[in-house]
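ARCHIVE ENTRY
Sequence with per-residue tokens
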Amino acid sequence: MSLHKAHKNKRKTMSRTNFDQLLQAGCHFGHLRRKWNPAMAPYIFMERNGIHIIDLHKTVAKVDEAAEALKNIAKSGKKILFVATKKQAKDVIAEKATSVNMPYINERWAGGMLTNFQTIRKAIKKMANIDKLMNDGTFSNLSKRELLQITRQRAKLEKNLGSISDLTRLPSALFVVDICKEHIAIKEAQRLGIPVFGIVDTNANPNEVDFVIPANDDAKDSIDTILSACCAAIAEGLQERKVEKADEKASAEQAEEAAEGKKRNSRARKEAAPAAEQAEEAAE
């Protein structure tokens, strides 16, 4: 085996995803040349039939870079908010984010979701209060019309905010599919200093996000492949955090047992001391 092939195989085993996976998923297809953003030039391999082709070698490297950063965020116990409201990404983002227990937005992005987070939290609490009142029978005396209005309000809140109901504080990062479509979310994150990870197509400005993943953001398979790699890294981070916590707990228990052992030994020595003195006096 040549040195080049060995190096290539080694890279494949170390990478979160490889060139062939990205190629099969159609991650290399960009937009028409007339729609391109010149800032994406470093990530474009060539032009074919008027369409820009993304350099997948750079995509592999960028996926690995983003995955490692996401893993560290998850390992520290922080939340990553996934955002994708376009049709072909909605179901994928919901599935992948749910698999790693992370919040997501796949319906309309409500303005102020981040910059006016306290108001959003109030809306989520309102949803929880409606559930509580429905369950304890408080609404049983309402008319059908009033009950219908409340039910519709609850359904609307669930649709827009149900997926972030467990988000008690601002997320530590944003993962965005199609940074052009989700520009409001990105602007809010930038204003608050929240790092942004994004799948960036050839029609977008990569300087808008902190972690660029150059790839086709219109094809479902492309989005799925990249999200799978990133979420696998997040799952690893969560698992490592779980193991570390278990080790810390075990160490704390061992330290506690050792302290208890010292206390018992100390008490035993104190109790044995008078008996030893009496035996010594009797011997004299």
User: Anything to note?
Assistant: Strands lie at 29-32, 44-48, 51-54, 80-83, 104-105, 173-177, 196-200, 211-214. Helices lie at 3-14, 19-24, 56-75, 87-99, 117-135, 144-161, 183-192, 220-283. The first strand starts at residue 29 and ends at 32.
